[in-house]
Structure formats: C-alpha cells, structure tokens
C-alpha cells in the first residue's frame, strides 16, 4: 500500500528511548516499565498488547507525565515528541502540550468525568486551556464536537451532568474532549474495556473515523487482539514491563515469533472450532516485587523454555526486516559478548 | 424543591409533637417544680404550699397538664418565667442577639481557618506544615472547652490584657454607636475563638482528608490530561467535590449558633441562651427550660432540612422531589 510506504520514510512523531518507569514500594524502586524503546510515525495506529500488569498503562501515563505523584516516576530514558524531549519539561510547559498536541482517553468512562460539572463545562475547559476563545464560541465548538463524536442531541447534552449519561456516551464525551484541540497524538488506554460489546464496536469505529479525518497518530492500548487486528498498523507486544515483539499487524498475526505472542493469539476464541475449553496461558505475570533478575521474564510460563532462558536475558533484535523479537530461540536476541 | 421543602415541613409536625411529649415528661420527672424553685420550702407554711400547688394545677392528671401546656404553646404563649416574672418570649428575645453574635462570629472564624488550613493540608499532605496543622488540630480536639476557656482568660485577659474576660459589652455605651459595636466585637472575640476551636479542628481534618481522597480520583487525571493547571485542579475540580460532605456539618452549625455554648458562655459569663439554659435548670424555671428545649429541637429539624436542600443545590446527582 502506498500509505504504508510513505509511513516508513517519515520522521517519527513520537520516539520513546530506553524508558524506565519505577514504582516506589516500601522504599525500593521496582521497574514497571523496563528499558522500552519504540517509535510512532505520523498517522500511524500503534497497538500495545499484553496481559494485565504488563506495564502498558504505566507506559502511556509516563508519556503524558500523569504518573501518580510520589509513587511512580520515570527513572531514565527519553520521550521525544515532535522534536521535543517531554521528560525534560516542567509541569507548566507540559500543560501546554497535554490536551493540545497529545491527549488521552482512559479505560473507565464512568469515573473519568467530574460528577459536579456539566459536560459543556468539562469540554470547554480544554478549549480555554489552549485557545483564546470567547464563551459563546467555546459553547458552539463544544456542541460541534459532541456532534462529531456521534451524539444526537448535543445542544441539550452540553448542559447535562455525567451521571445522566451512559458509559458509551461518556466515552464519546471523553473522545470529544481528547480531540477538541486536534492533537497530533491520541493515547487510548483500553478505551472499550469497560463498555459492552455493541458499544465497543461503535467506539472503535468512531476512533478509526476520527483518526482518518484528523490525520493523527494513535497509540491504542488493549488486551483484545481482535481490536488490534481491526484497527492497528503496527503492534507492540509487552510482557512484564518489556517489549517482547514488535511487527506490523499482518506479520504479527500470520508469522508470530515470540512464544508469548503465539500463545496470546491461540487464546482468541475461535467460532468455527468445536472446542469445549478456551486455551489459556498458564500462570500469571510476575508481580513487580518478585520479577526475575536475570533471564527471560516469560521463561517460567513458556512451553519452549530452555535452560539458558533462566540465565541469559534476551535482547530485542530484528529477526527479519521490521520485525523485532526478544527471545533466545532466535540468534538475533542473544546478547553480544561484553554487552550486558 | 419548594414542594419538597413543604412536604418535609409537614413531616416535622408529628416529630415535634413527639418531642414535646418527651420534653414535658422529662420536666415532670425532674425533682421539684417551678413553684418550689421560687420559695424556700423549709420556711414556708406547708398548707400554703399545698394550696398553691392545687391552684397552679400541679395535682391535675398528667395528660390534662400536658394539653394545657401544649395548647398554649401552639398559640405562641410560652408561659411566664417563674424567675424573671416576665414572659418567656421576652426573656429569650433579650438574650438571643448576644447568642447570635457569638454563634456567627465563632462560625465565621471556624470557616475561614478551616478552609485555608484544610485546603493547604489537603494539597500538600505529609509535609511539615501539614503535620503542624494536624498536630494543632488534635490538640484543639483533645482540650475540653472549659480548660481552653480558662486558659484563654488567664493568658489574653489577665496576663496580656488584650480582651475582656466577661460580659458582652462595656458599661456606659450608647447603643448603635460605632464604639458600641466595636466593644461588643471585642467582648465576643475570645469566647468565639474558644467555641470554634473544636469545630475548626474537625472541619480542617475532614476537608483535608476529603481533598486527599478526591485528588486520587480518575477525573483529576482527566483534568491533568487536558492541560489544566494544578492550581485550578485543586481550587475548582477537587474543592467543588470536597465541599459536598461538609454540608452535613452546616445543618448542625445552625443549631449550634442558636443554642449557644452552655459551657463557654458560663465561663465567660456571656449573657446568652446557653447561660440562660443552665440558670433555668438551677432555678427550676421550667417554662423557660421547656421552651428552650423545644426551640433547639425545632432548629435541629430545620437545620437538617436546610442541609438536605443544600445537598440538592451543590450536588447535581441529588434531585429533590
């Protein structure tokens, strides 16, 4: 496809380099995101998948500098957005970017809106934060935005309160807030997890439509591989705070390399097969406090684990063009001599 | 909302009726009566006492006595104070302005202090200043008002001489002049601070904890993601939510303003309703005592109603109908 070729040659909009985000648990730092690097190109939809507790949300909050204060912090690494290092920015500088150039929608639409302010107020707030605009104009713009996210009676809804809306409607309002200033990058952290299935499809459709109209990049965090297949150009698979595989969506689905990816794909229920039980991955993601210090973090759950998996830490390497994997089954993942 | 208020007020009538029965019964159960409070039983002719008791209707059946009292009460005749020999309504309205002044001053001091301390502590929890405020508050909560009152009089009246230790006004002031009001404020300040000490402490800690709790909510993260400044997040998004639970206190405050402070008013010999209440107990001035008790009960009900209506005003999720 011509668009995809164009994507490959463009400079990235967002570049995350060696990001390490740590949580302070009883005085000790534990890395929830460990040495993660990736790029997002303009107009690209990047999916980040993995089980709960893999560091997906923490990573997205790190980009927005929204980590819970005093508990989580970015220890090292760079987050270069549109040529600027977000990590080096002060609170007031980042406030000029948040909501304007990068915006975010969250998993829980039920609690993400302030219960005591009207929809209109919360929508106009983002406009007042970033634009010089009169009250009248802001109201008109808010109504137009609500219309653009598929809300049928926007003139009435601007004066209503969040509790009068359903979950799907609230998520639409959140999307309207997020796209109000036409951001270059939208981070959607499991935007449909809390919604029921029919509404999920509508919201994803809406996101895709908005992405095409506004020419923005999207980071879509999800644990639903079906959503990834539908929406994304590129997929990053995360496990226990590390990237284990990265490839474009077709390659990943048809030629997965990492055993974890293979197992994740195998866990998607298939309608055409008569199977009594759903296949699942045994065990759980290790918690932050008992993460293995050396070796592959997936080793103790991996059906293909070899003795060296427990002693040698794999590195992310190109197994083929534009397809990175971190697994010792592949020569490219073996750490080079002298490099830790 | 009017309909709601009207329905609630109607609902108060049976409640007040029940309260009046309790008040009347309690007054009857107390040893002695207003008549024996007026005379010296040891030096009075027992026959005269018996005659007077019969004449005053103390020997009538209890229900008859009750209905005689409540009937007049409903008509607005609260009886005559046995001690002051004037109408109860006059006794109360004489003391009421003092009590209102004390109550309002105390509440204004409380609100201002609690608002700023609570907001600061909530925004910067676990800092030195927060711990200091917290420490002061626990001190305020744990010192009983009669100790705090005596200490305040000792320090600010006797040692430093900044404030008068008793009364509500200097002698020889002309009513209505600027000096008159200044003198009244001067007198009310110390008891108002002592009275407000306890509620300041609880208000502050309550506001602080609610702000901390709200600052962890998802909508705060949304506001940050929109690029809203930290100042606006605290002063608008969080504060607007944290005020809602404080409304509950407001209902009690209304009662506190009127009922005055029995202990504080007595220590500062401040002539208000609290002092009147205590004196009425001592002199068995039952008409005053019963009227005051009914008044305080009525105000408690009104205070609760007001709080419920205010909930509907500040919290859009609550609808009154």
TrEMBL record, chain A:
It is found in: Cell membrane. InterPro entries: AAA+_ATPase (IPR003593), ABC_Ni/Peptide_Import (IPR050388), ABC_transporter-like_ATP-bd (IPR003439), ABC_transporter-like_CS (IPR017871), Oligopep_ABC_C (IPR013563), P-loop_NTPase (IPR027417). Keywords: ATP-binding, Cell membrane, Membrane, Nucleotide-binding, Transport. It is a peripheral membrane protein. One of its GO terms (cellular component) is plasma membrane. GO terms for molecular function: ATP binding; ATP hydrolysis activity. NCBIfam families: oligo_HPY. This is Oligopeptide ABC transporter ATP-binding protein AppD. It comes from Neobacillus vireti LMG 21834.
From TrEMBL, chain B:
One of its GO terms (biological process) is transmembrane transport. Keywords: Cell membrane, Membrane, Transmembrane, Transmembrane helix, Transport. It is found in: Cell membrane. Residues 96-307 form the ABC transmembrane type-1 domain. It is a multi-pass membrane protein. It comes from the Bacteria. The chain crosses the membrane at residues 9-27, 100-120, 141-163, 188-207, 243-268, 288-314. PROSITE patterns: ABC_TM1. Pfam families: BPD_transp_1, BPD_transp_1_N. One of its GO terms (cellular component) is plasma membrane. InterPro entries: BPD_transp_1_N, MetI-like, MetI-like_sf. Belongs to the binding-protein-dependent transport system permease family. This is Oligopeptide ABC transporter permease AppB. It comes from Neobacillus vireti LMG 21834. The lineage of its organism: Bacteria, Bacillati, Bacillota, Bacilli, Bacillales.
